[in-house]
Amino acid sequence: MNLFTSFAISASGLTAQRLRMDIISNNIANAQTTRTEQGGPYKRQVAVFVPIEQDKSFRSYLNNSLETSSKFGGVRVAAIREDQSPPKLIYDPNHPDANEQGYVAYPNVDLVKEMVDMIGATRAYQANVTAVNSAKAMFLKALEISR
């Protein structure tokens, strides 16, 4: 394993979780948005993560065959998708966006679900920070041994 591989893997996790937290924050901020430029209520967004495959060089194939290296080298955001669940219909005939029956279509954002996702993203971010700090401490100890 390369000296900086663990840093790169954790850095990709930090970047992905940061984007996930930004998306969740955007969902929470738009939880009451009933009118968008596209028409209709805001639609909840979700980040889709996929593993990053390491390079396809001969060395990586050799390392993978010897089981000394991982096939994957972190994570990246493949897409940001809209949640296709239907909007919440709430009866409010005085609202300017109410339909003929008096129902307003509110975004499909559930604040409890968003907060749980935010806690999960925060914990994953903290785990990656811990991994970076642990790798840094190991490398510093290795340097002290060589003195």
Secondary-structure map:
Elements: H1 5-29, E1 45-53, H2 58-65, E2 72-82, E3 88-91, E4 103-106, H3 111-145
Antiparallel strand pairs: 1-2, 3-4
Shape: elongated
Strand content: 15-25%
SSE order? HEHEEEH
Helix content: 40-55%
Strand order of the largest sheet: 1-2
Please tell me about this protein's structure:
It contains three helices and four strands. It is α+β, with helices and mostly antiparallel strands and 147 residues long. The chain has a domain at 5-31 and 45-82 and 109-145. Helix 1 runs antiparallel to helix 3 (111-145). It starts with a helix and ends with a helix. The relative contact order is 0.21. The model has no long low-confidence stretch (mean pLDDT 88).
Structure keywords:
two-stranded antiparallel sheet; two-stranded antiparallel ribbon; alpha+beta; 19% strand; 147 residues; 4 strands; 3 helices; elongated
In short:
The protein is α+β, with helices and mostly antiparallel strands. The protein contains three helices and four strands, in the order αβαβββα. It has a domain of 102 residues.
